[in-house]
Structures are given as C-alpha cells and as structure tokens.
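Self-study notes.
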Amino acid sequence: MDKREKLDALKLALTNEEKEKEFYLQHAGRTSNEVGKKMFIAIAKDEEEHYRKIEELYNNLKERDGWPDGFSSQISSSKVAEIIDDIIQKSLVSESADVEDEKAVEMAIDFERMAEEFYSELAERADSEEERNFFNMLSSLERGHRLSLEDTLDYFKDPQGWLERKGGRHLDGA
C-alpha cells in the first residue's frame, strides 16, 4: 500500500471512529437502561482513544514515508468487559431496554463488524510487521466491542436467561 492509500485509509478510519463515538454518546444520553448507558459510554471512550492513536499515526505518516520510528501502537484495554462482569456479579436489574435501545445496539454491532473487517483488511495490506500488528490490534478491539454488544443485545432481549447462561444469579436474587 503506498503512502497516499495509507493516508486515505487512515482518514476514513478517523471519520468512522468519530461517527461511532458520537453515535454511542447520543444513545447513552437517550437510553434509560443503565446497562445500555454504561456500555455506550465505555465504547465511546474506546473509540475516542482509537481516534487519538490513529490521528497520531496519520500525522506521523504525512511527514515521512514508512512506518514512523518509535510509534507506540499501544491502546489501553477496554472497560467494556468489566461492565459485563459487573452485570453478572451484581445480577444487575435495570430498566427494560426499549425497541430503540435494541435497534441502536444492532446498528452498533454492524458498525463494529465493518470496523473489524476494515482494520483486518488494512493489516493484510500492511508493509511492515509493526503496521500489521497495529491494524490487527485495532481489528481485535473492534471485535471485542462487537462481541460485547452482542452480549448486551442478548441481555436486553432476555435478562433472566442471559444471567442464567452467564452463571449469574436469578433476577429474584436466588
């Protein structure tokens, strides 16, 4: 992939990360479901961090050819899994999710699936091991979001069944 293609791909990634963050914040503000609100906020924070790291890479690549020396591709781990664990531990009962919550999560699952595939394709086209590792890491993070959102959707549709499948207590406390 030449420099122009990389920069164009990173520009698209920046646009997508920003749109996804705004989507999550909008739905965090709209929902009255505590689980959904926590999930949307956590993923919005993750997308903001992805944005900053991609922006740093984009700015570095604009100034030079090839992968920037000393570029740290580390991104802190997501808090999304902790939210799922917290739900299980507390057998969290929150206000029922509405149809809009479910639609938002379904849309978010599609966003995350597309991002996962996009970064995976960039990894396949990478010119260096560092570049490949960076895009594989982003793909993996987006996959984690997708899986957590699928869990959230399952919880929205059947909280009691979800808790039983996850090994949590029953909603009645038993």
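Second protein, same conventions, sequence then structure:
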Amino acid sequence: MVDIKIKFDAPAVLRKWPSFKSERVSTAEFPYIVVESTLRECIRAFIAKPTSQHHLYEIHTTPQGEFIGPVVSWNNIVEIARLQDFR
C-alpha cells in the first residue's frame, strides 16, 4: 500500500464544463469557475454535486506528486474523496 500525502490546504479551483442535458457542450473552449478556495473545499463542493454530473467537473491546483496533477479529473477526485472520507 502506498502512503499518499496530500496538502488539502493547497489553493485550488473547482471548474465545470458548460453542459446541456448533463453532456459537455462540444463547442466550449474552457470550463468555468465554480469554487476558488482550497483543495479540501473544492473536493467538498464537488462531492455535493449530483453524481450524474461529476464527469463535467475538474479541479485545478498545484501538482503534488504523481496522483495530483495540475488538473485533477473527476474520477481522481472521487477516489481522493473516498480515501479521505469527505462528507
């Protein structure tokens, strides 16, 4: 088992891709800002969103090793939230 150290107080931005009927709008060039705070708060805001829309979100933050890149995709956010028991 790998012990992953994550700095949850790191600055982060939760972004959402524009969508229509829970599908990403193909003409959208950039996701828009939903929350600008810490990684912890962005994860909490993400998990409060409907599961059916998780694929539209990503978190932008400072890279932290192999698991946390500059853009954290929704499936990695779910895994981090599960490992850290965010509620």
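Instructor comment on the second fold: The longest helix spans residues 74-84.
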